[in-house]
Amino acid sequence: MADGCSRGACASETDNANPRWRRILWIALIVNAAMFVVEMVAGAAADSRALQADALDFLGDAANYAVSLAVVGAALAWRARAALLKSLFMLGFAAWVFGSAILAFVNGTTPDAMTMGAIGALALSANVSVTVLLYRYRTGDANMRSVWICSRNDAIGNVAVMLAALGVFGTGSAWPDLIVATIMAGLALTGGAQVLRQALGELKVKAA
């Protein structure tokens, strides 16, 4: 039956309406919005494309969490549509970062490695905290999975920014910064494609 659900799917329905899930989303939204401001200012000051890319990732995630909050307790089809929208955010972020890296390759200067490292460490601590809170929801519906993938990718991206800072410091070149910005775009592209496939699959099942 189209309205039936497996044990895992029913558990997902229960989790989605759980007040704890809503609280976690609010925490994630506040943390990501704050880190967007911090990283965008620091990225501009340090002339780091990797930091600016990470800042935009935080902004996209804050928007994603806001959308997730809007559909808490909604039917699976609506949550799948929300996940579909969020996958487009992730794919759009990837396109922006690729374009930014190309422009930086042509016109950019060497970024400030110390600022990159310090802000990258701060962002990592913020993302790890959110990722730990979201861990139990990593195998939920497309909406929950998209939130988990965003946070997981952010933590990986923060580590990459710190490695880029070491590379810039050691080489005096902008190449590590540009390489990491490109890797982060690849993560967003992969994650967005995963969420897109799952959301479309859930919409197809619901329509059957």
UniProtKB/TrEMBL annotation:
It is found in: Membrane. The chain crosses the membrane at residues 24-46, 58-76, 88-107, 113-135, 155-172, 178-196. The keyword Kinase does not apply. SUPFAM superfamilies: Cation efflux protein transmembrane domain-like. GO terms for molecular function: zinc ion transmembrane transporter activity. Residues 82-203 form the Cation efflux protein transmembrane domain. It is a multi-pass membrane protein. Gene3D superfamilies: Cation efflux protein transmembrane domain. Keywords: Ion transport, Membrane, Transmembrane, Transmembrane helix, Transport, Zinc, Zinc transport. It comes from the Bacteria. One of its GO terms (cellular component) is plasma membrane. This is Cation transporter. It comes from Sphingobium fluviale.
